[in-house]
Amino acid sequence: MINAINKLFRLNHSSTIPSNVTFFIDLAGYLAVIFLIREVYFSEFNFIANGLFWSFTTLVFASWRMRVRQISWKDLGLCMPDDLMKALIATVATLALTILLIILFEIFKDVIETPLSVDKSDEQAASKFGELKDNWWLFLSLIPFIWLQSCLEEMLDRGFLLTWIEKTLSSTIFAMVIAVVLQALIFGFRHSYDISERSITVALIGLAMGICYVAFGRNLWPLIIAHCVLNTISMIERV
Known about the structure:
Blueprint: H1 2-8, H2 19-36, H3 47-68, H4 84-112, H5 121-129, H6 136-168, H7 173-189, H8 197-215, H9 220-236
Helix pairs in contact: 2-3, 2-6, 3-6, 4-8, 4-9, 6-7, 6-8, 6-9, 7-8
C-alpha cells in the first residue's frame, strides 16, 4: 500500500505526464488529507491542540509536495514584503474587504430571509475554548495558539491550496478566478461541514483573503496579520 502511494506521488517535473495532471494528483491528496485528518480526534486533548495537529499534519503533506515540485514557502509569499507601506495597505484593504463582505451578507440574508442551518458557533466556542466570559487569563493563554492557527490557515488555504488549484487549471486568468472562489468555498465548508451562517461567513473571509492575496503581490504576511486581527476581535467579543 505504502509503495503504491509513493509510486503515485513520485511524479516530478521530468515526468512525461503533463504538469497540471501532477498538480491535480497533489491537490487530490491534499484535499483527502484535510478532510480525513479531522476524523482523528484525541479526546484527552482540547480542540485547539487537535486543530493544530490537523493543521501541522496538512502542512507536512503540503511541504512534501512543494519540495517535489521544487516550490518553497517563500515562493508562495512567506517572506518579508519588499515594500512595508504596500504591505500595510494590503493588510488594511484585506480587513476592509472582509468586513464589507460580511456586512453585505448580513444585509442580504435579512432581506431575502435565506433558510440556513442553525448557527451554533457560540455554543461550539464554549466547548472548544472553555468559558471565556470575563476570563482574560484564559484569553491570553489561548490567543498565541489562535494566531499560530491563523498563520497556518493562510499558508495552507491561500498559499498552497489556491496556488495548486490555479496550477491544476493551467495558470490562466480564468484559473486564478476559479482558484480564489474554490479555495474560499472549501475554507468555509471545512469549518462547519454544512451550509450555515458560519460557513458562509468563513467562506467570505476566505474570498476576501484570496482576492487580496492575488491583488497585492501574493505575499502572505498581510493576510496573516489581518487574519490574526479578525480572530483576536472574535475572541475578545466572547470575553
